[in-house]
Specification:
314 residues; alpha+beta; four-stranded mixed beta sheet; elongated
Length: 314
């Protein structure tokens, strides 16, 4: 089967499955019924949402606005629904063929009578990002521990949290098994010297470059979060293989009085940067409830977060 026929076959199956899914969803939803389908015409691939009942002017304006926030990952989620329904068609083979076809992707929203509310071009670079990702391996000579690595843009990152035991580093809930899953939590001072030779604790600017490489701060959480483990459907797409786990953190103090917090809800990582006026240390966080990445200043010296090392520039 040639690539074009393969893509069209997948889209036909997608439309059949999405029609069944939307029929069930429309019955349960308080929203007005809608249909979702994919249309391939030459090099134009349309992700089309058609509303089946009349919309008020206010509703139409909102639907037009909503269309501007459609991303390749949300479109991929439609294919993922099909995979979850038992059709294993959302595969790397399909993504590879679709990306190689150099199609232009658009999100279209229509009213019941066919009036186009929005026709928005969607960049394919995020959907096709795995074409530009190179995975590797790092062995820490200090303890022999091996880590997966991933190149995202021009940067090479550890694709796992650091798990090198130092003074002022801890396992979540003081449970050694958690270190096997999440790596270790470090105070900022410990984190500053924790990375192996040739690697370093990233600055706030280096974190920012990573986020821009995956679509910006507003989308980075969705792209970089792991595909499982997050509470309340907060899983990410892990498009890059960065695999940010919802490992929580240690708010402050190891005197036994302050519990570890937010496992399943948040991922926290240190940067090497300090806020200029307050001298507070800057950490990066992802949350289960949204798609954003956030930079936050932390006041206590004994707060402990996770570490992702980035490779030194050559």
């Amino acid at each position: 089967m040639d690539s074009e026929t393969y893509i069209k076959t997948v889209l036909e199956i997608s439309n059949e499955k999405l029609a069944k899914f939307m029929k069930k969803a429309n019955k349960k939803s308080g929203d007005k019924p809608a249909s979702v389908s994919f249309i391939l015409e030459g090099k134009r691939l349309t992700y089309k949402v058609k509303w089946l009942e009349d919309l008020t002017e206010e509703e139409a304006d909102k639907k037009e606005m909503d269309a501007t926030y459609v991303t390749p990952t949300s479109i991929f989620a439609s294919w993922q629904l099909i995979a979850n329904a038992g059709e294993d068609i959302v595969t790397d083979v399909f993504k590879e063929k679709l990306c190689a076809a150099n199609v232009k992707l658009f999100a279209v929203t229509e009213t019941k009578d066919g009036k186009v509310l929005a026709d928005v071009p969607i960049p394919m670079d995020l959907f096709c990002m795995n074409k530009h990702i190179e995975k590797g391996n790092l062995q820490d000579s200090r303890d022999g521990h091996s880590y997966e690595t991933v190149q995202i843009g021009s940067q090479v990152w550890m694709a796992e949290n650091l798990n090198f035991k130092t003074e002022n580093s801890f396992c979540y809930n003081n449970n050694d098994q958690k270190c096997n899953v999440y790596g270790r939590l470090y105070t900022w001072d410990a984190a500053m010297s924790s990375c192996p030779s040739g690697w370093h604790l990233p600055t706030e600017e280096e974190w920012g470059s990573l986020f821009l490489s995956v679509g910006g701060w507003g989308l980075a959480g969705r792209i970089l979060k792991s595909r499982k483990g997050w509470d309340d459907y907060g899983n990410g797409s892990d498009t890059t293989g960065f695999n940010a786990l919802p490992a929580g953190y240690m708010p402050n103090g190891m005197d036994g009085q302050v519990p570890f917090s937010f496992e399943g809800e948040m991922a926290w990582f240190w940067s090497s940067s300090i806020q200029e006026t307050s001298k507070w240390k800057i950490g990066m966080s992802f949350h289960f409830s949204n798609e954003k990445a956030q930079a936050q200043s932390l006041t206590h010296d004994d707060v402990a977060l996770y570490v992702r090392c980035v490779k030194d520039a050559e």
